[in-house]
Write a structure and sequence with these properties.
Layout lengths: L1 H12 L3 E2 L12 H24 L10 H14 L2 H7 L7 H4 L10 H31 L4 H8 L8 H34 L12 H27 L6 H32 L4 H11 L1 H25 L4 H27 L11 E2 L12 H21 L4 H5 L1
Antiparallel strand pairs: 1-2
Helix pairs in contact: 2-3, 2-4, 2-8, 2-9, 2-13, 2-14, 3-6, 3-14, 6-7, 6-8, 8-9, 9-10, 9-13, 10-12, 11-12, 12-13
């Protein structure tokens, strides 16, 4: 037993440079905690895109309205799984409901999640689909007809007055859902930003940076899904819709880039005792993930491509290629940002004199394969939702 512990300790010490306290040798928040804020950010961003249609009446974006809602729902259903799996004792997750602690930001996630899922997203989707559910219940055969009747809560009124009430209710819920979406993901940044002992996390801008990056990633994801699914259905891509969505994406990326740059400049201006270890952290451990993947590939290159589309007279096919490529690069950049925050914040000692190296498992509850499965799962859920609740009928009729 002692030999095993000695061997394990020697392996860990090989990952250390400088001075590290013994209780800091192991990194406790793994890639699952990276996946969690990334997935919740996609939920918030997709819902904000849907709100452009329902609240701000941006007609050009209507083809993606239902897709945005279903995408938000699919990712929201998977969002708690990384945290639950990380617990080791998943059944303990219910303790936050049985014995709520209002002073704990982490414990309050369960209530924020439940409110957003049942009080906002499911209600808006129900009001949006209620008329279609009734029609499908009449058209389909058993058992789908019975399923649609249950989903419609056995409602049968499809009069113009009832449909108008559905639309008004969905609009009111969306208006409430916008600040709720901000709360859902902004609190993730709040949790990191409130850790005063960690200079990599402790920043008043952290919640805002997380929120803006969530909007960017959600809009980019829905754009990717729309560009992939529409040709698979044998339908033409609405270039006006793409131009409008990417315009909002362009402005969101600029704001996100400015906020992250402001946060970095603020840290340099303060020049606290931690600035040296943070510089070493970026230079030695996070150079690729911060400067190359997050800044260059994830922000600067997509901005250049979007500017080229807006400023130049590119043909439709080239514009689509630029849009598609920039959205993929944005996803890489946002995921890298989550990695840099979660993992990077654990790589230096509290003494500010040593650095660690994170060695990710391949197989295991907190390994690479599990993280990949959690990232794939929302797309499988979305495929089922799109099969059950087609997202295109309204857009094509419009």
């Amino acid at each position: 037993m002692n030999s095993e512990l000695t061997h394990r300790l020697s392996e860990l010490l090989e990952q250390v440079t400088g001075f590290i306290y013994p209780n800091e040798i192991e990194i406790h928040w793994s890639i699952l905690i990276v996946v969690y804020p990334y997935v919740t950010g996609l939920v918030a961003g997709a819902f904000i895109l849907a709100s452009l249609v329902k609240v701000f009446n941006v007609v050009e974006v209507r083809p993606t309205y239902r897709l945005s809602l279903l995408t938000a729902l699919a990712f929201l259903l998977i969002a708690p799984l990384p945290l639950v799996l990380h617990l080791g004792r998943p059944e303990r997750a219910f303790e936050i409901f049985l014995s709520p602690n209002l002073s704990s930001a982490m414990a309050m996630f369960g209530f924020v999640y439940a409110w957003y899922l049942m009080g906002i997203l499911l209600l808006e989707i129900w009001f949006e689909y209620r008329r279609d559910l009734i029609v499908w219940a009449r058209q389909k055969r058993f058992p789908m007809s019975f399923l649609y009747r249950v989903l419609a809560l056995f409602s049968t009124d499809i009069s113009d007055k009832a449909v108008e009430l559905d639309s008004r209710a969905a609009k009111i819920i969306t208006m409430i859902g916008i600040p709720s979406a901000f709360l859902l993901h902004g609190y993730v940044g709040f949790i990191f930003g409130s850790v005063k002992a960690n200079p990599w996390w402790s920043s008043v801008l952290m919640p805002i940076v997380f929120l803006m990056s969530a909007i960017v990633s959600g809009i980019a994801l829905v754009t990717l899904l729309y560009m992939i699914i529409t040709p698979l259905r044998g339908k033409p891509i609405d270039i006006r819709c793409l131009d409008k969505i990417t315009s909002y994406l362009f402005y969101a990326v600029i704001v996100d880039f400015a906020l992250e740059g402001l946060d970095f400049i603020h840290r340099l201006y303060e020049s606290e005792e931690s600035v040296k270890i943070l510089s070493a952290l970026i230079d030695q451990k996070l150079f690729i993930s911060v400067l190359v993947m997050q800044v260059v590939l994830g922000m600067i290159v997509p901005l250049i491509m979007l500017v080229a589309v807006k400023a130049g007279r590119l043909n439709e096919d080239l514009r689509k290629l630029f849009y598609f490529t920039s959205c993929i690069l944005i996803q890489i950049g946002i995921f890298s940002m989550r990695w840099n925050v979660v993992i990077g914040g654990q790589l230096f000692s509290k003494s500010f004199r040593g650095l660690m190296t994170y060695k990710m498992e391949v197989v295991g509850v907190e390994g690479l394969l599990m993280a990949a499965a959690l990232l794939i799962a929302p797309f499988l859920v979305l495929a089922v939702l799109l099969k059950l609740l087609p997202a295109w009928k309204e857009a094509e009729e419009h």
